[in-house]
Amino acid sequence: MGREEWSSTLGFILASIGSAVGIGNIWRFPYIVGANGGGAFLIPYLVSVLLFGLPLMVLELAIGRSTGTSVVSTFRSIRKRFSVAGLVIVTIVSLILGYYLVITSWVLAYALFFILGRPMEFGAFTDSYLPLVFFLLSGLAVFMTVRSGVREGIERASRYLIPILLVFLLFLVAVSLTEPGAVEGVGFYLSPDYSRLTDPAVWIAAFGQAFFSLSVGMGILLTFGSYLKREALFRNAAIIAAADILIAVLAGLAIFPLVFTAGLDPAAGVNLAFITLPSAFTEIRYGMLLGALFFLMLFAAALTSAVSMLEAPTAALMDSYGYPRKRATLLVFAAVMLLGLPSALSYTALKLEVFGTAFLALADYAFGTIGLIVAGLIVSIVGGWFMSRARICAEIGGCGWQQKVYMTLIRYGVPAVLLITLIGSFFRVAG
Predict the structure, then answer these.
(1) Does any domain span residue 3?
(2) pTM for the structure as a whole
(3) With 0-12 CB in 10 A as exposed, 13-18 as middle and 19+ as buried, what is 118?
């Protein structure tokens, strides 16, 4: 049986948008913007995406399409000893998925609560063992999608879920902008404070958000690239990045008018989705309907991202050991659920903690922040310095001056920015 392929360019683009657009885009991005200079933050963010995130995205796609295989096998083909680096990336993305499914399960639970018209306080929800039930349900939804294959699972899910997400989001924006707190909310979100552009922390936040939101460095796009035929990589990558930015910006226009209308804290940070917004929905017109739509939209975003994360290690197992898809998916799914169980238990009645901190919070920092940056460094260094330059040029359209600029960014710019972001992340925690 030949290697699976996308059925069309549109299917690949929608699946890649689904990978990029996740929970962090919809509730993390608006808060990051508001806390880092409002509209002025968009300047460093766009610079980060265009000069660093987009080149790394193209590199992953180019490597995957050139080798026609997944992360571990690709790295082994570049240098045999680099197979260990490929395993590190697969391990990191599996660990990230483990705790990401926990947050996905909360989204699914809240969607059901609002559909039933019975929203539950987050504290009451996590004081029970109900989160474990939704953790299993979310994991099964991701498992069944990846088990069905590239076209029938990942691509088909994205063809439905991404348009649904966009329609729900546009509807929420339209409703939010008619609320009494719309002017104040949009002002908090987008009023530019250009003085913040001189703050290195703002730029580090922009770099981190760009790499986080585009799903680069995790081997996902490398795997997706291995299913590609001959496509215009730069054009498709630009479409994916533009869609990712657009959805993130629209999310803020949907969220902050509702928060200000309800008179709640707009700087709630990580509590925004599960504490502040549910309270806002109970205070405004048609709140149950809007809450249901918001959390269904958030679940669509979370599900497509989680599916792409599960595909990366699944494809690695298939390519490295010749396992059939169904068996490989089951093995990876079981491992991910075990890895995610401590994070799931940290927000139940058990309250699993390490040194007084919820296990999920530690996992988010260790794997979703530090691990993600390390994975990006590995991809940029191995791909930029050790893969044949002629092969990369063949994938990106030649070796003219534009490609030389691109290779300079990949070899020097992207690793430097990732290293700065890594150091900045350590300093933020130390501070």
Answers:
(1) no
(2) 0.94
(3) exposed
